[in-house]
TrEMBL record, chains A, B:
GO terms for biological process: negative regulation of DNA-templated transcription. Keywords: DNA-binding, Transcription, Transcription regulation. One of its GO terms (molecular function) is DNA-binding transcription factor activity. The keyword Magnesium does not apply. Residues 13-81 form the HTH gntR-type domain. Coiled coil: none annotated. Signal peptide: none annotated. It comes from Marinobacter zhejiangensis. This is Transcriptional regulator, GntR family. Pfam families: GntR (PF00392), UTRA (PF07702).
Amino acid sequence: MREREQEQSSANGPIYLRVRDQIADQIENGLLQPNSRLPSERVLAESNHTTRVTARLALAQLEAEGRIYRSNRRGWFVSPPRLVYNPTEDYSFSDNVVAQGRVPATETLDVTTIEANAWLAAKTGLAEGDPIVRLHRRRQIDGRSVLVENIYLNARRLPGIETFDFNRSLWKLMREHYGLELARKQIEMFPTALVDPQAEALGVNAGTAGLYVTRCSRDNEGCFVEFDEEFWLHDTLSIQVDVR
Amino acid sequence: MREREQEQSSANGPIYLRVRDQIADQIENGLLQPNSRLPSERVLAESNHTTRVTARLALAQLEAEGRIYRSNRRGWFVSPPRLVYNPTEDYSFSDNVVAQGRVPATETLDVTTIEANAWLAAKTGLAEGDPIVRLHRRRQIDGRSVLVENIYLNARRLPGIETFDFNRSLWKLMREHYGLELARKQIEMFPTALVDPQAEALGVNAGTAGLYVTRCSRDNEGCFVEFDEEFWLHDTLSIQVDVR
DNA sequence: AAGTGGTCTAGACCACCAC
DNA sequence: TGGTGGTCTAGACCACTTG
């Protein structure tokens, strides 16, 4: 413990920031490749002559910056590049992921027909009690679950929608089967922590940083079609939008 | 310490999640108003028969959710509502804040003329070495610093821009003085932690959650006008965009 | 001067995962 | 079964802010 005094390295700040910088350098230099495992917390603590609490502070910093992520109790891993995502476009998640050289996967967790509650009525413009098909999906990139979503579909506007295969692109389904081009779209998003139903579905701890994204789509006549609510892990995406 | 065993409250999970829920309830019930101070960490620890480390875990959760924020070493405070922000619009920060019933402030921290480096050249389409006016500002809502930004202006397209008062709306300046309507705009944003130059400028700890937003604007001829780089505190804004 | 959060120690036990 | 992160204890000293 005593030899820390003579460690006159670059930063004279807190230990955990020095540990953070050291790991960040290793990531930037390619010593640590995307998705590779970091040394365990106990090893990091020992090799820096400090304790686990301090090592975890450094790891939490890197996690907040989106440079590393944790997987269950398996360890800490280097984050791969963010997926570039344009929420204003009708697009296929799978096509987009493939176009960026990654491997997508979609799991349909649940499909139910429900009635619009007050919250949904306010978001969609439907009346309370109107029928809605609720679709719950989880999506992965390279085997890592990166988002869960709730999709609320206007059952009257899309009759029979609940009978389709929801692991393919919804957007293609709407266009090809219903001859539908989405016109108006309202998008809202903000950073927040993922809490319990979603955190558990993604296999992360409650409190993990995320991005909450909603999209409300209408047809040419302004009729509500789809309300989409997405919970992303914060280090997995970069939003990109072109205007005009 | 021993009496914790009989504390058979709602959640049987970790202590810090119970403390989190208890504080979250007080915020939702209005017992804790926006911008009011929470009890100190030591008080929270004692009143929950636990230690500061655990109390801080609970506070960190609420901070990650955007429900509370910290101010220097003064304490923890309840977050006010998020500012609704549309980065695709030419708009005045001040007008927008006022329209939402809040009090805005802008501080110009620095104005310099620089030459485009490789990074700026790639972002703007200018050549390396082209002249750019760099404007560094900090903006507040109700006295809390919520973002710092770097604005890079095309000095050739906006001659004399560096002589103006930068505490007013840049967008109005461009329209009224240069007769300029911005046409194409590329926006990119992702959640990340705020690190040192920006964290310090905002008076927060390195590692505080933030949202990084960039906007690149061009005129009708596609000529680069402005590249804006914004660092927001993550709990202070909600992005909202309407398409078509 | 007193109180606050910021950092840190040196341990401990637990739940879960991989071997 | 051994190693991982997840949670927790019971303290400590420091830097800074506030009255």
